[in-house]
Amino acid sequence: MTPAATIPMHTPDEAIEELEYAVKELGLKVIVMSSMVPRPIPAYQRGSSEVGALATWRDVFGIDSPYDYDPVWAKCVELGVMPTFHAGTRGAAFRTSPTNFVYNHIGHFAVAGEAVAKGLFLGGVTRRFPALKFAFLEGGVGWACGLYSDLIGHWKKRNRSALEEVNPANLDHKLMRELFERFGSKHLAERLEGSAIFATSGANATGNVKDLDDFSACNIEHAEDIRELFTQNFYFGCEADDPINAWAFNSRTNPYGARIRTLLGSDIGHFDVVNMNEVLEEAYELVEDGLITAEDFGELVFSNPVHFWADGNRDFFKDTVLESEAAEALANSSSS
User: Fold this and answer.
1) Rounded to whole angstroms, how far apart are CA atoms 109 and 139?
2) Distance between CA atoms of 117 and 134, rounded to whole angstroms?
3) Is 234 exposed, middle or buried, given 0-12, 13-18 or 19+ CB atoms closer than 10 A?
4) What's the 3-state SS for the chain?
5) How far apart are CA 323 and CA 315, in angstroms?
6) Sign of CA dihedral 184, 188, 193, 199
7) Mean per-residue pLDDT of the chain
8) Roughly how many angstroms between the first and final C-alpha of the chain, as a whole number?
9) For the chain, percent of residues with pLDDT exceeding 90
10) Could you give the CA distance from residue 9 to residue 305 in angstroms, rounded to a whole number?
11) CB-based contacts of 137, cutoff 8 Å, min separation 6
């Protein structure tokens, strides 16, 4: 076993300082970063102190952050450590039941993971740091398969060229008025004049958004590019008894034949692990049930973890019982 350093992420400088200390002074090689950092909303901070303390928004680092976290990602590459995230959303949004734990618990890790993964991807982090891997723990992989497909679907309809299909400048004002008069009323048609619907140019037509391409930071030319930017950099922690784990390996379902990278999480110490000596047995049931192959299982419990932690630090498994096996796996991937 190896301990994990917890890295605060409230500012890039704080994170870099702790990374340096954890790796260079303490000799740690695994990191868990705080995610969804709460930021104060200034307008509420100026009001009631009681309300101000609760009025926050969640910073997911990749987009809309008041800070540039690229120096943090560059430091991770330099030190050979891969960021992992483990955050929950119980007590927030639609998970605030005061009486039902299960209602609050289901999906709350997945929501937190999706928020950060989307921010990192759309912020172009995986494009700028192709060697850096990120892991989202304890949320399973089902949400990741959905996110991967959704990113592709959205890019096809909302890349910069595709947006011309809904360009307000293409609106036929004369025809629209005629249709409003015919199927609505003259009064309704008259209200069109001066309305936002007819704002076909300038900031008002685009909500004051300067860059209309939500994917601009990713430099995507073809939808297939998303497969590389997503599957090569993102890994997802899966519990043993989750049948949805099989979805990650289903290249017939995942667009462009993708296989989403998984990491087995034992979850030992949690209520859902009744017998800690049965974790691997439960994970292997996916093979016995014909949902994944033995080779898929090997990726889940061995090769994916090896590559996640050792691609950036070839000595990660040195002096462990897995040293020779890990070295062989890394060598085989390099030769291929």
Assistant:
1) 5
2) 9
3) buried
4) CCCCEEECCCCHHHHHHHHHHHHHHCCCCCEEECCCEEEECHHHHCCCHHHHHHCEEEECCCCCCCCCCHHHHHHHHHHCCCEEECCCCCCCCCCCCCCCHHHHHCCHHHHHHHHHHHHHHHCCHHHHCCCCCEEECCCCCHHHHHHHHHHHHHHHHHCCCHHHHHCHHHCCHHHHHHHHHHHCCHHHHHCCCCCHHHCCCCHHHHCCCCCCCCCHHHCCCCCHHHHHHHHCCEEEEEECCCHHHHHHHCCCCCHHHCCCEEEEECCCCCCCCCCHHHHHHHHHHHHHCCCCCHHHHHHHHHHHHHHHHHCCCCCCCCCCCCHHHHHHHHHHHHHC
5) 9
6) negative
7) 92
8) 30
9) 74
10) 24
11) 32, 84, 85, 86, 109, 113, 237, 263, 265
Residue keyed to tokens 């998970």: 95
Place of tokens 């991937």: 333
What tokens does 249 get?
């390996």
Q: Contact at 8 Å (CB) between 219 and 124? A: yes
- Taking every pair of C-alpha atoms in the chain, what is the biggest distance, in angstroms? 82
**Residue located via tokens 């679907």:** 153
Rg (C-alpha) for the chain, rounded Å, is: 24
- Cβ-proximal residues to 197 (8 Å cutoff; 6+ apart), any chain: 171, 176
- Phi, psi torsion values for 239, nearest 5 degrees: -85, 155
Token pair 């973890």 is found at 305
Measured in residues, the chain has a length of 336
Q: What is the pLDDT of residues 199-249, one digit of tens each?
A: 665 555 667 777 889 999 999 999 999 999 999 999 999 999 999 999 999
**Rounded distance, CA 231 to CA 112, Å?**
19
CA dist., res. 101 & res. 269, Å (int) = 18
Could you report the per-residue pLDDT of 241-265, keeping only the tens digit for each? Answer: 999 999 999 999 999 999 999 999 9
